[in-house]
Design a protein that fits this description.
The protein is an alpha/beta fold. The chain folds into 2 domains: 115 residues, Urease, subunit C, domain 1; 287 residues, TIM Barrel (Alpha-Beta Barrel), CATH 3.20.20.140. Helix content is 37%, strand content 21%. The protein is built from 16 helices and 16 strands. Helix 5 crosses helix 6, helix 7 runs parallel beside helix 8 and helix 13 packs antiparallel against helix 14. The longest helix has 19 residues. The two termini are 25 Å apart.
């Protein structure tokens, strides 16, 4: 995985006032806080970047006397590293003007049609070179790391040509090499129809299918393909041949679905997408579709806050039996905040989600939204990715609505952020 993973002796880290392992939780449906497995006075035993054992700190210390001890002072709560399963942090420029226009009454679609929106970011991103994009992506990824995010997905989609999409994905790959956290790249070349493309939407998607996707396979730049299904982007009918090709080539499918109008969830389910993201406009029909499928519903409260629109109906999705992950959608236009913990806490308050549902949504269920089975919970054999919070009660973390940040972040058993030494 990363250069930080080294052959090492056994480490014992603790004691923690509380350790939430996020084990034994069902993937689908509602959760109660009583389902959380909480270990008091706990420790984590780590070997070669993975969890060797969790349990009572004193007991682990006695059973492993040769372990390298990292003893903590004061009260700490330990959570698995957060997984942000939907971001757009590889970009050039700023969209502060868009934000001002929206707050003055202009709609997202009106701003896009007048030359702002995604195309503005496309123009700025095309001007940036790989080194500049790598640097800016790394900077934002490290900002996420300090808030407890040890794995994050990053999309392309601001290039909108074969050359520029490849450039973005190379920059994302380069950023992944130089930061402690893990970046999962996604190709979003079908973000919108590029204004400068000579041809129809059908022609553009065919070019992506015949030229870009083979390049991505050959260069191993990503195994994930996304598309925006919306009035300002692509219709379900238009996107179907593209997804058919991507799926036949072995790409995982994910979908920007039901953000302003419904329709995308049906496409996600039809193509066996790993996730359908946004869902602010989902109706009972889409909720039932997702609940009866294996497609994970990913709520993006950052977009709701940025646009001033409804939240994803997370409560109804969970009660219907769906899997709900929560991601930041960090992007320069509709979700500039990029603070996963704050957004998840706010979503929980508005949608009446239990602590267990929110925390699962940014750990184990978010990992599932990226198809990752090796993280999201702290159990034997999985990655030793975790964050520590200065408190004696895990409930304080969401109660403070993002104001209580991690004091330490560990990636694969290595301390990669220490607030007191930052």
């Amino acid at each position: 995985m990363k250069a930080i993973r080294m052959m090492e002796e056994i480490k014992l880290i603790g004691p923690f006032k509380q350790l939430l392992t996020m084990e034994v939780l069902p993937l689908k449906g509602p959760l109660t806080d009583s389902q959380l497995l909480i270990i008091d006075d706990a420790g984590i035993l780590v070997s070669n970047g993975k969890v060797m054992a969790t349990g009572n700190y004193a007991t682990l210390k006695k059973e492993h006397p040769s372990a390298e001890c990292h003893e903590l002072k004061g009260d700490h709560v330990c959570l698995p590293g957060f997984v942000d399963a939907h971001t757009h942090i590889c970009f050039g420029g700023s969209r502060a003007n868009d934000y001002a226009l929206r707050n003055s009454g202009k709609t997202y679609l009106e701003i896009a049609k007048s030359g702002g929106g995604i195309w503005d970011t496309v123009t700025q991103t095309r001007k940036a070179n790989i080194e500049e994009l790598t640097k800016s992506t790394s900077k934002l990824a490290n900002r996420h790391l300090k808030t407890g995010v040890t794995t994050l997905e990053v999309k392309s989609g601001y290039g909108l040509s074969i050359k520029e999409e490849v450039k973005m994905l190379v920059a994302i790959q380069e950023a992944n090499k130089v930061i402690p956290s893990d970046i999962i790249a996604t190709c979003l070349a079908a973000h919108m129809f590029p204004k400068d493309f000579k041809g129809s939407k059908k022609d553009y998607l065919e070019e992506l299918s015949t030229t870009l996707l083979p390049k991505l396979k050959e260069s191993n730049l990503t195994h994930r393909v996304d598309a925006f299904i919306e009035e300002s982007a692509f219709s379900p009918t238009e996107i179907a041949p593209y997804f058919e090709t991507a799926k036949s080539m072995g790409f995982d499918i994910t979908v920007h679905a039901d953000q302003f109008t419904p329709g995308g969830s049906q496409v996600a389910v039809d193509f066996g997408a790993i996730s359908a993201d946004h869902l602010e406009a989902s109706t009972d029909t889409e909720i039932q579709l997702l609940a009866q499928s294996d497609t994970i519903a990913t709520a993006l409260p950052g977009a709701s806050l940025g646009l001033g629109c409804n939240f994803t109906p997370a409560r109804r999705l969970l009660d219907a039996g769906a899997t709900v992950a929560i991601a930041s959608d960090h992007n320069p236009g509709s979700a500039p905040m990029g603070d996963l913990l704050t957004q998840a806490a706010i979503l929980g308050a508005f949608e009446k989600l239990s602590n267990a549902e929110v925390l699962a949504g940014i750990t184990v269920r978010a990992a599932a939204a990226l198809g990752l089975q090796d993280r999201g919970k702290l159990t034997k054999g999985l990655l030793a990715d975790f964050s520590l919070f200065h408190t004696d009660n895990y409930q304080e973390i969401l109660y403070n609505q993002g104001n209580l940040k991690p004091c330490m972040v560990w990636k694969e058993g290595n301390l990669v952020y220490n607030k007191h030494k930052a």
